[in-house]
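Side project, low priority. Logging it here so it doesn't get lost.
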Amino acid sequence: MSNPDTVNSSRPSAAAAVTSWWQAMQAGDLASIAAATLPDHISTGGPEGRTVGREPLLVMAEAFLAEASIQHWSVTALEVREHGDVAVCSYEWAEQGVVNGARFELRGVATDVLVFRDGRWHYQAHHVGLLDRPIDAGQPA
């Protein structure tokens, strides 16, 4: 999960911050997402292609959550590289849910850049890419 040579064990783990982000999305907890996101956040690869700034991210998340619910999500193959107060996290993700009454299943890869500030990790950047392959049978979704 993490390279032990690059992780500072005296503070919360960047991996836990990634998990918390996904939990907040599933819970529809926009306040937690806002608190975990830096004002100049950059997001690429989502439905809008690219957003710059925390506020556009929150508007997009609120619109999505008004129409959808994430019923199940997973983060696997998480690799974390800490470089001082910056962590780069790369992982595979999957989510299942309902949007406008229809089921959806998505799977992809993501890279997150986190900055440690004020005692916690904050999202500076989030990049997702969808994978064309279906969810593997027998693999958690």
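Brief comment: Confidence is low (pLDDT under 50) at residues 1-6, 135-141.
Revisit when time allows.
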